[in-house]
Amino acid sequence: MASKLNLLPSETQAGRNNARAENTSSHRRRTLHVLFIHHDAQAINSCLQELENGQFTVRSDFVLNQAQCEEQLRSQSYDVIVVEYPSPSCEGSQSLQLFRQSVQDTPLICLTSAPKRKALSELSTQGAFEYVELENIAQLSMAVRRVLNEKALRQELEEARTALQHSQSLYRALVDNPAYGVYRSNTEGKVLEVNRALATMLGYESTEQLLLANQESEVIPNLLVGTSFAARSAETRQVEPVEIEWKRKDGSALKARLSGRGIYDDHGNFAGHEIIAVDITGQRTLEDQLRHQASSDSLTGLANHRRLFEVLHAEICRSTRTGREFSLLLLDLDRLKTINDHFGHLTGDRALCRLAQILKDCCRSIDTAARHGGDEFALVLPETGWAAATLVASRICDLLGKDAEEPALSVSVGLASFPKDAGTIGTLLYAADKSLYDMKATQPRASGARQLA
Question: Residue 300: inside a domain, yes or no?
Fold first, then answer.
């Protein structure tokens, strides 16, 4: 279990750290459609009460067994399914995993008693579902929030994957139908002849102009010098494709993919190479843009969910290999809904960007700041223990407190370290998330800060 991070938010006026309802993510403000598979009406009512306390607007149905659940799913879709475990229709790991498959992409939360906690904990680390103990029913809202965030992340990753597949298909079409530049060189690699397409590609008005410029400054480099054509076959003189960067006449960069073959004179003697050049500058630029878009948040410019998980995976591997710990900060921007309501969504977006800029300012080159979703942010701190990470969190709060721009901002912060608090990405995020909400629950109301207008 993660320790608590006892930090004061940068805003210290009475009421500014109150109202968990004001800090809820967007999915909390819409109607939550829940299906209960449970025989105990009292337990269902307790769940509904906790979800309402967590600022969810709930619409619910209930059934008694798995067969009724599958029948209900044919006509209705649900945001979350809450299932009693163990139950006559669902007991044992195999039965639970089969049930998980039957509900497909709908998030699943098991409502269980304490004696079954260990078995469920081992299964839930596989990412199939969440579980909440009946004696800790107050954690239900947090569990629902977590599974909804994870579902949104899976959808985002699938959309990014689809976009990349589409772009790759486009690239293949471009490569299959290019305007080819062609030139011939002698056995020493000196350029003897070029075609019009290559002259145009490099920004010259004619082939004669390109050849003259090449004699003066070697616009087309001799690929036999160095290692560019080291993969060519000594027998067939075939040249494996190689990418190279050229300079156009105006000085701009051009990336080209070159491939070629040997040419021979009338007597069968090797006479040089014929090289085909394809301009891939636009392709590489588009690939770079897609990579950036797929790994960054469009509003703040920080890393997105996908990049955050990649970084966490890499840090866990590194930490496991080297034995050096790292820390994760989760930050929740307080009162974003109130800011949106009082000042408008443009100001709300500006508030998110202000916090993002402060996170960038507090980052070292090896750190990664990410927008975790909605009003939540994350900061991955390699080679950083609990004490140092606490200082970083304090600095963020201090910088927010010194920001003169209105409205004033504050954050709630949760902290977890690997491997001290968790052993996987999921449990690390859970530990940091729990630390954050422990702080929200225990932080005293502060005074002395500016009020919203």
Answer: yes
Q: Where are the alpha helices (DSSP H) in 13-108?
A: 41-53, 66-73, 93-102
Residues 435 and 437: their CA atoms lie apart, in Å, by: 6
Please, are residues 24 and 338 in contact by the beta-carbon 8 Å criterion?
Answer: no
In this structure, are 275 and 385 located in the same domain?
Answer: no
Report how many domains make up the chain.
Answer: 2
- Per the structure, the complete domain to which residue 261 belongs is given by 178-285
The whole-angstrom separation of Cα 164 and Cα 392 is: 36
Residue 192: strand, helix, or coil = strand
- The Cα 15–Cα 447 span in angstroms is 8
Neighbours of 62 (CB within 10 A): 16
Torsion of CA 299, 300, 306, 308, to 10 degrees: -160
N-terminal to C-terminal alpha carbon distance within the chain: 40
**Cα–Cα distances in angstroms (integers) from residue 153 to residues 59, 82, 188, 309, 329, in the given order:** 24, 21, 56, 10, 19
Q: How does 316-345 read in b/e, with b if 16+ C-beta sit within 10 Å?
A: beebeeeeebbbbbbbbbbbbbbbbeebee
Same domain? For 158 and 188 the reply is no
Here the tokens at position 438 are: 């422990």
Q: Render pLDDT for 159-214 as a digit per residue (tens, 0 to 9).
A: 877 776 765 564 444 334 446 788 888 888 889 988 888 888 999 999 899 999 98
pTM (2 d.p.): 0.44
The candidate with the shortest Cα–Cα distance to 140, out of 112, 180, 100, is: 112
Residue 8 falls inside a structural domain: no
Instruction: Say yes or no: 82 and 143 in one domain.
Output: yes
Looking at the fold, whether 88 and 26 belong to one and the same domain comes out as yes
Domain shared by 315 and 434, yes or no: yes
